[in-house]
Design the sequence.
């Protein structure tokens, strides 16, 4: 077997370390370790398979033949395949990152909505002693008052409710 097969492939096709990091999903140090390995078989099997796929080959012997290739048309096909796969890999990572950011934002929004609904549920528990008819009339009247109200009018309404609560306490 030829020594440092991975190093020679990377060098021959000028594959960027950053592209390999993204494609193989390993660190920069790991890429350099792979490049320094004497035997291709010392690379973990899952990474070997990805490297074989990158060149469209099924085994180490076929990869070695790529190194001996001098036909410029065939070499261009390899370069196009490599850049296409590495480009697709980078694009899919970018899309995944964008999706993750979007999901994180949606998750935060849903968490806030959930908190608001929990607060509303706690408030509504206070109305549990009222019958359905009274609740309907009360909520209809409140919705009439607050629909289209600006913040000053809402404050005035709440102040009236506070005054009523104090009045009611004094009558008890």
Sequence:
């Amino acid at each position: 077997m030829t020594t440092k097969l991975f190093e020679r492939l990377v060098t021959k096709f000028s594959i960027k370390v950053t592209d390999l990091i993204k494609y193989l999903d390993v660190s920069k140090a790991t890429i350099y370790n792979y490049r320094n390995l004497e035997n291709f078989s010392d690379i973990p099997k899952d990474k070997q398979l990805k490297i074989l796929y990158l060149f469209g080959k099924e085994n180490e012997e076929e990869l070695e033949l790529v190194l001996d290739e001098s036909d410029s048309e065939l070499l261009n096909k390899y370069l196009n395949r490599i850049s296409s796969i590495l480009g697709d890999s980078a694009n899919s990572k970018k899309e995944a990152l964008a999706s993750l950011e979007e999901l994180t934002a949606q998750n935060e929004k849903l968490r806030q909505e959930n908190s608001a609904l929990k607060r509303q549920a706690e408030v509504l528990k206070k109305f549990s002693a009222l019958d359905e008819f009274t609740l309907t009339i009360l909520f209809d009247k409140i919705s009439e008052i607050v629909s289209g109200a600006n913040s000053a009018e809402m404050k005035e309404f709440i102040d009236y409710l506070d005054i009523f609560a104090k009045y009611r306490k004094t009558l008890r």
Q: What stands out?
A: The longest helix spans residues 72-125.
